[in-house]
Automatic annotation (TrEMBL):
PANTHER family: GNAT FAMILY N-ACETYLTRANSFERASE, LD18367P
Superkingdom of source: Bacteria
Domain N-acetyltransferase: 9-162
Xref: InterPro entries: Acyl_CoA_acyltransferase, GNAT_dom, NAT_camello-type
Disordered: region residues: 286-311
UniProt entry keywords in alphabetical sequence: Transferase
Name of the protein in question: GNAT family N-acetyltransferase
Coiled coil regions in record: none
GO molecular function: N-acetyltransferase activity
Organism lineage string: Bacteria, Pseudomonadati, Acidobacteriota, Holophagae, Acanthopleuribacterales
Classification via Pfam families: Acetyltransf_1
């Protein structure tokens, strides 16, 4: 469609009738993302998903997902622009519109992930996307080497919204009042228990550690760690990833002796002062690292030419 240069595209909420066109745009960049997006759109709805439109033409898509149990933290969802409209400033226009929506909700931070995937013909196909996000003000916070597959790194970027007022320090009088109000209540002491492991989508034999909070200070023990490591070996896992809030201070003493390596953090992820600390266990470099049997891998061959934010 010929676009009138005097009319500016606008960002509006995504509708059910937009899904097929949006999936076409995503598919042209990443088949796996398109499959995941289709399932999410149809099963979970279109809340906080948007399209950039000019008249009846959809030029791109973006959106966000709120992170539970955080202070106004979000993940950027599938963000793609039709090839015909790239290099014309529409990507920035789309993201600025999204930022306006998030700032109206007093968003504090938003994160995205991408990779350094090297295509045999086109080389580093996400280089321009990474430069685009940096130009918007995103800051690289963490890299997981060999995350998706050997040789392909996952890269995390974070953006802190400007103009947020710093939290006022709690006065001694307020602390005394809170203590008095809570005298009859049992104190909540956070802990963590492991609930299992699962294969991470779009990866080759990478697994994630699953856990839940406890409110009585109870933590998993060494035996539970050994159990999940044995299960991961049985399934021929290449790497086991885990992340925990930085205020769960017992985690380092539990994971470190078992061979997990702390691998960086997402700053102020949960709230200001509480980061998301990332750990990994690489089986090939650990004692008894290999496995005899493998769980069937559920990934597929990718067609990937460009990427916005994952999630």
């Amino acid at each position: 469609m010929q676009q009138n240069e005097h009319e500016t595209p606008n960002l509006r909420p995504m509708r059910a009738e937009d899904i097929d066109r949006v999936l076409e745009i995503i598919y042209d960049h990443d088949e796996d993302d398109a499959a995941t997006a289709e399932y999410t759109y149809r099963e979970s709805g279109l809340t906080d998903k948007f399209v950039l439109v000019h008249e009846d033409d959809i030029l791109g898509t973006t959106g966000f997902n709120a992170v539970e149990d955080t202070d106004r933290t979000y993940w950027l969802s599938w963000t793609y622009l039709d090839d015909d409209y790239q290099g014309k400033g529409y990507g920035r226009l789309m993201m600025e519109g999204l930022f306006d929506i998030l700032q109206a909700r007093s968003a504090r931070k938003i994160f995205l992930t991408t990779s350094d995937y090297q295509d045999e013909e086109d080389g580093d196909i996400y280089e321009s996307a990474r430069a685009f996000y940096v130009a918007l003000g995103f800051v690289e916070e963490l890299r997981h080497k060999d995350f998706y597959a050997p040789g392909e790194t996952m890269i995390y970027y974070g953006y802190r919204f400007p103009g947020l007022a710093e939290a006022e320090p709690v006065s001694e009088a307020e602390q005394a009042e809170e203590k008095e109000l809570g005298e009859d209540e049992e104190p909540l002491i956070p802990g963590a228990l492991i609930t299992g492991i699962s294969e991470i989508p779009e990866t080759k034999d990478a697994y994630g550690l699953e856990w839940r909070y406890t409110q009585d200070g109870t933590y998993f023990d060494a035996a539970m760690i050994e159990k999940v490591l044995a299960k991961a070996r049985e399934w021929n896992a290449r790497t086991l990833f885990a992340s925990f809030p930085s205020d769960l201070e017992a985690i380092e003493a539990l994971l470190g002796p078992k061979g997990f390596k702390q691998h960086g953090r997402l700053v102020d992820f949960f709230e200001d002062g509480i980061d998301d600390c990332h750990w990994r266990f690489d089986f090939q470099s650990a004692p008894n690292g290999g496995a005899a049997k493998g769980k069937p891998h559920h990934g597929g061959n990718k067609k990937r030419r460009g990427k916005g934010g994952r999630r």
